[in-house]
Design goal:
Layout: E1 32-36, E2 40-43, H1 44-58, E3 63-66, E4 72-76, E5 89-97, E6 102-107, H2 111-122, E7 129-133
Antiparallel strand pairs: 1-6, 1-7, 2-5, 3-6, 4-5
C-alpha cells in the first residue's frame, strides 16, 4: 500500500473539501486520463486495486502514471473502546480528491484499450469519474 515514509505531524484534522482542483486538472504526460467529477477521499487500497486492473487489461504495454498520492492520515478507534481517551490511531492514508483532478494517465496505447482500462479502473473508486483524452 502507498503511504508516506515520514510526516511532520502524526495525526491530522479532517479538513474541508471546498472548491475545484486547479493543480493537476489537465493531462501532462499521457494521451488518456481518468478525471474526477465528484469530491471525496480515495484510499491507498483503492488506488492499488485500480492500478492492478489497468496493468492487467493493458498487458503491461504503454505507460501508466499515478498522479495522486495518499498523504492524509485517517484515524479510527476500535469498536469496543469506551468514549474518551483521546484520538484513535492511524487506520489508513487517503488522497483528497476535488472535482477536475486527474488520477491516472495512460500513454502509448490504442484508444479503445486505454479507454476500456480506465473505465474498469473507475469502478474501483467511490467517486464519479470520467475518461478524458488530448
Amino acid at each position: 500500500m502507498l503511504q508516506p515514509k515520514k510526516r511532520k505531524h502524526k495525526k491530522e484534522f479532517r479538513g474541508k473539501m471546498r472548491g475545484i482542483s486547479l493543480k493537476g486538472s489537465t493531462l501532462a504526460y499521457g494521451d488518456f486520463g481518468l478525471q474526477a467529477v465528484d469530491r471525496g477521499w480515495i484510499t491507498s487500497r483503492q488506488l492499488e486495486a485500480a492500478r492492478k486492473v489497468i496493468v492487467k487489461h493493458t498487458k503491461r504495454k504503454g505507460k501508466t502514471w499515478l498522479k495522486v498520492f495518499p498523504h492524509k492520515p485517517v484515524t479510527a478507534k476500535s469498536s469496543e473502546v469506551k468514549r474518551g481517551g483521546g484520538k484513535g490511531e492511524i487506520d489508513r492514508y487517503v488522497a483528497v480528491i476535488k472535482p477536475g483532478r486527474v488520477i491516472f494517465e495512460l500513454g502509448g496505447l490504442t484508444e479503445e484499450v486505454a479507454k476500456h482500462a480506465l473505465k474498469l479502473a473507475a469502478q474501483k473508486f467511490p467517486l464519479k469519474l470520467r475518461v478524458i483524452s488530448k
